[in-house]
Hints:
By secondary structure, the chain is mostly helical. Helix content is 65%, strand content 5%. The longest helix has 31 residues, at 343-373.
Amino acid sequence: MxxxxxxxxxxxxxxxxxxxxxxxxxxxxxxxxxxxxxxETLFRQINREQALDVFRQLNVAQQERxxxxxxxxxxxxxxxxxxxxxxxxxxxxxxAEVVEGYLTELSAEERRLTNQLLSYPEESAGxxxxxxxxxxxxxxxxxxxxxxxxxxxxxxxxxxTLPVTDKQNRLVGLCELSDLVLGDSERQVAxxxxxxxxxxxPDADQEEVARLLQAADLLAVPVVDEDGMLLGIVTVxxxxxxxxxxxxxxxxxxxxAEPLGRPYFSVSDFRLAKSRVLWLVVLIFAASLTVQVLxxxxxxxxxxxxxxxxxxxxxxxGGNAGAQSSTTIVRGMAIGDVQPxxxxxxxxxxxxVGFLLGTMLGLLSYLPVSLYAGHALALVVSLTxxxxxxxxxxxxxMMPLAARFFGVDPAVASAPFVTTIxxxxxxxxxxxxxxxxxxx
Length: 440
């Protein structure tokens, strides 16, 4: 079965034959590569037994499309069977009237759990936590805890990490399933649990919570209110989804485009163009600075035409140096290595790195340029490389930090935007050095 753009289903029998020996994950992965019309054709051939398993493997955009082409009875069944946190994530992307329709058809308990999650701010820990957890009492013995898990574990999203609460439902510890399985059956849970566990509040940023799970190597982290009452848990699979989403958004913006939020082949050509055109328009206006610099130094270019030969080399090098710095800092901020409080420290460090890069490139370029255009112009090019690499590294590091300070996503200060600014300032530096060295 092919998945390129020219592929077409030939008949329902062929589709059913293909579906019969594929796992839900394989079907979901295949779906991501199909165009919308082909996705609909595939979804219509999935039977009820396969539908739920496949639906759980799909991303939100694909789930939305599958619901749109599925019989209402089955669509409600699929939504009902989702975990509450996955259902809340899906409802975030659906129109309000569609969400209201599904809420009225859910069971009372699932509706209550979903409304609870939707009451928290978007992109918060409360939105991605699971309210279906299994809590142990610290007074239980290991044997009693294992019996309790066997009887009730199917209701919980995970049993690998189990919160321990007192009679008032306040979090007092965490217990790993492995500790219970390997522990002495007569010991109490209080003796083997991890005291003072990591915990977050429901309003905490979801990316910060995901980074905590990653940094502390946790399978789950409890969510508690200001009084320490247990509300739910955020599991590692939800954290991975958050990190994947955030990194996809950062990568898109660092390339001067808006995130698609959907698989590549699931969006139209127009939507792809729309996601990129805004930044291109902004960059065109920003690039007008370069035109203004060239216009201002037109007489200098007429006096020393050979200066024009090295403009692409210099602005390209400066742009690349700025992009390297910007990308490094954005990534460092994303994983917590660089904080806004490190503003001065980071700029000084990148300035030193840029100076070293400029020195190395300047020395490497001096000989070939002098052989081609003379020692005076070689000195101009070398000094400009030194200056422009230093400047580009400082600008590239400063813009993401400044963006975070003003509450803007650092990835918005993307590499193309940094490159455009460095192009204009680099040309200005180049001509000023040329006028000084060549006495123009």
